[in-house]
Every structure is written in C-alpha cells, then in structure tokens.
Amino acid sequence: MFTKKSKTWLVFISLILLITFRFITTRPVYKAGQNIRIMTTVLVDPIKYERSQYFKTAGLKVYLPLIPEIIYGDKIVIEGTVNDRELINPTLKNLEAGQNNFLGIRHKIITFYQSVLPEPYAGLLAGITIGSKGGLTNDFWNKVKNTGVAHVVVASGMNVTFVTAFLVNFLVVFLPRRKSIPFVILGILLYLFISGFEAPLVRAAIMGIVVFGAQETGRIVSASRALILSACCMLIIKPEWLIDIGFILSFVATGSILIFEPKIRSKLNFLPEVLKEGLSTSLAAQIGVTPILFVTFGQFNILSPIINGLILWTVPFIMILGVIGGVLGLVIPILGKLILYISYPLLWWFVSIVTLLDF
Q1: Distance from chain centroid for Cα 155
Q2: Largest Cα–Cα distance in the chain?
C-alpha cells in the first residue's frame, strides 16, 4: 500500500525518467562539418547585436546579418555547416512573415509605441510590455545587460505575473473570483501568444494556469509544487530547454525568491515599501542566479540588486500603462497616446538609472 508521500516520490521519479528519455531520444545529432537545411518558425525575437542577430533553432546557435530583420512568428529556411552546436556561415534562403491575428496585434502595438515615443523609450516599453527585443538599440541593450536588469527589459515571468494580477483585480469587480478564473487563464494564454514562447514566459504561464486551475477545482497548490510541475511539463514537451540558459535562470531565480524573499523582506523594514519589495525580490533572485551568471558569462555587477531595487517599482505601472495605451491606440489613437505620455516619466526614470549606473 503506497502512502501519499511515496506516491508523490513515485510520480516525481517517473517524470524525471520520462524527461531524461525525451532529452536523449529527441536531441538532434549532428556531425562536425555536416551541411544542413532547417525550416522553422521563429518562436522568440532574436537578440540583436551590433552586426548580427542571434537565436537558437534545432539545437544550434545561429548568427545572421541584421538585415533582413527576423522577428517572432516569421517562417524561415536557413542553410549552413554544423560546428560545435553552432551553424557556421548560415545563409537565409527564405523569409516569410508570420500570418495570424496575434502577430498582427503585436506588430501594430509595437508600431504604435514607436510612433508616439522616441528611442530608447519605445523599445523599452515594448520590451517590458510584450517582451519584444527587436526595438532595443544596441547601446541600450548593452547598458541593461551591464547593469543586470535585462530580465526586466525582455520577456520574463514577471510579465505574466503582472498580467495575471491585473486581470484578477479587474475581473473580480464584475464576477465572483471563482467564475473569473477561466477568463484569467484565457488572458494568460492570449498574452503568451502575443508575446512569444520564451522559456520564462512559458514557465510563468504554466504556473499561473496550474494555480488557478487548482482553485477552480477547490484545491490548493503551493508555489513550489507549481514551479516543479511547470518545469516537468516544459521539459517533457521541449527537452532541449534543459540546457537553455533562459530556462535555467528563470527557474533558479523563481526558486530563490520563494525561499529567500520573505526572510530578506523582514530585514528591510527600515526602507519605504516601494523600495523594499523591489530590493528584497532582487536580492533573493541574485542569491541563486549570481553563481550561474558568473560561471556562464564571467561577470556580475555588484550594484545589480540596488539598481533593480531602484527601477523595479516602475515596472508594474509601465506595463499597465503600456498594455492599456497599446490596446487603446489600436481603436482610439488619441487616448492611447495620452496614456503613453503618462508613462514617459517612468520610462525616463528607468533609462536614467540604467545610464547613470552603467560603469
């Protein structure tokens, strides 16, 4: 007779074995010097560098020229030579723009931001709101990386958390909390399709759906259990995420926050609430991710927790104003512009802090 604890362990071990099997059997095997042709749909915005744009596909790193620009949703055909998990001398053979309503909405919102705000404010707003990296200038992208706030500017679980909180607070005005849950889950899925399928967004979306789905059935699921379950679901569906740095950092940071944030917050009672939340969350996350960042990239900004504490309080307001302004801009442009103008002081503060403390 299995106890509840033994059943939990049995399920956990079974999932680990399934993930291991999936990782071994689905990972592409290439020979050095092998010429290959890849046809794929881009599910995340490539990272822009000074002379190239970078993304991963079919288990390979790919660096292509900046022009033509590739964005989330594009269908591409590339050819190149495999060398040490990288596609050497890749050639873009075909580029077909994505064709669906979600991509159309995303593109129109980004275009509206760019028509109202100058750079780097428009790119920053698009990054915080819908995880778009395409509008970030190379200079500003280097600054956010150097100051340790790149997780805020690009797609992260924080985006989904804010969307979820906004939907819950908005819908409970009109519906009982339990009846609003299906609409919250639908909103999370819609946001995911518009923003892209980067690992941190998918992780947060699954965690949100698990938690709210459990509430719908009258159950209680702990955040730590939801985190583990979301990791297992993601790795079963896409085993290559097991060695994806974005996936690893997202889960380690979330786990660190769950473990350390309450203890750190209790030690910061002397700070104003608006700074205490951002600083405690940042410090908790840094405990887990700092060793990974140092080993992977060989650098770490010691001022990063302070910088995060100074700018994180602006992010919920920027995101809410960005979403409302972007959506209104599609139907009533003058109102959308007014909302975006309201967000400008917050964007200015964010850019100023990052610029000032980029040593």
Answers
A1: 3
A2: 67
